[in-house]
Amino acid sequence: MYQNPPQYAPAPSLYDTPPRRRRRKVVPLPMVAFLGIFALLFFGGSYLVSPEARIHAQPGVAFAELGGRDVVLVPYERQGARGMFQLLTQDMFQVRLAAVDPASDEVLWDTQLSDELIWEASVLGAGRDYAYVATDSGLMILDLSDGSVEVQGEDVPGLDGAYLTSRAAYAYDAEGRRILALTSSGAVRAIELDQTKAVAVDDETASAWADRLSADRPRSTTFEIAGTEAGLLPSSSEQVVLEDVGIGELGSVLFRGPEDGRKIQVSETAFPHARLVIADGTAAGAATGHVLVQHRLSLNDTGLGLSLVSLATGEVTGSLPISSAPEGAVVGPDGTTVVTAGDAVVLARGDGSVVPLEIGASDLFGSA
């Protein structure tokens, strides 16, 4: 039987040359150093010479318990970018929520909620696991441990496509310890604290809350936080009152006494164009034996300030200039009053001090 002869590979030629290996292109060390210095100057230098982003604290503040300590949840606006890195990677307009320990000033977390230019958020309440925030985009439920968004808007079970983009459509029912929500069909539903699902309520609750909740988008969160008279304690009929003294615009002094009885003067200090700061329906600071007063810095100075007055001695125990009038105020479990006033968040403490609470600071990368 015929077989094909075996095939042999041709012998290598003396003129054949092995293939050349491609050499890697190595960037010279001077070029690496130059690029590093350029990046440092471009990003780091621009960060150092740029001002901090503009901060505006929103009024919907609230207290919560986190890790065994009382913290205040502060929604705020941050506008602008510090340095080129933030300009390239961060949103120019942000609404954020910060959790701050007022006893130590430590910021536990600070998370972005929105990149809208005009957008507000109000903290309704918090349990041990979740915080509930009414926003212009609907309800947001945040993990209280780190500020991450658990669920929001149409993804909230039980609200789904019936959710409303109105802060006025959501409220906290302190008696029932739950969040109440109005749907687009006019129904009222409830979310128990530390739950994420909205469920139907009984007819009595629906009737009672139907008029308090609204599908209309409010222009701003409204708080009654200033007046010339206020109660000292919710269960007491005693009041503090600001009354004008002297001739013309010398100012107002503090009096205290029964609502319908004779009042005695608390302090000799006259505060020009003064108003009492009101938190949770009573005089701010009253829980610690003080009264917080908003006033002009002097008769000839239109700048504003906050002063804390001792009800026992009548002395001004602490003062702080502010850039704008207070918009929101809340009292913590230990009596500390937190006031939002434009770019400032102010603490009026039980020891009589009035100090700023720092929020909104960010590092090179824009992290708070």
Give your account of this protein's structure:
The chain folds into two domains: 57-210, Lipocalin (Beta Barrel); 226-356, Beta Barrel (Lipocalin). The strands form six sheets. Strands 14, 19, 20, 21, 22 and 23 form a six-stranded antiparallel β-sheet that branches. β7 and β8 form a beta hairpin. By secondary structure, it is mainly beta. It starts with 28 loop residues before the first helix and ends in a 12-residue tail after the last strand. The chain is globular. The chain is built from three helices and 27 strands.
CATH topology of the largest domain, what is it called? Lipocalin
Total DSSP helices:
3
Mean pLDDT: 85
Beta strand %: 35-45%
Helix-strand category: mainly beta
Shape field = globular
Helical content band: under 10%
Low-confidence stretches: none
The H/E string reads HEEEHEEEEEEEEEEHEEEEEEEEEEEEEE
Named at the architecture level, the CATH assignment of the largest domain is Beta Barrel
| Number of E strands | 27
Highest CATH level, the class of the largest domain: Mainly Beta
- In angstroms, what separates the terminal alpha carbons? 87 Å
- How can the largest sheet be summarized? 6 strands, antiparallel
Radius of gyration, taken over Cα atoms and rounded to an integer in Å: 30 Å
- Any idea how many domains? 2
Protein name: PQQ-like domain-containing protein
Transmembrane segments: 29-49
Keywords: Membrane, Transmembrane, Transmembrane helix
InterPro entries: PA2928-like (IPR048161), Quinoprotein_ADH-like_sf (IPR011047), WD40/YVTN_repeat-like_dom_sf (IPR015943)
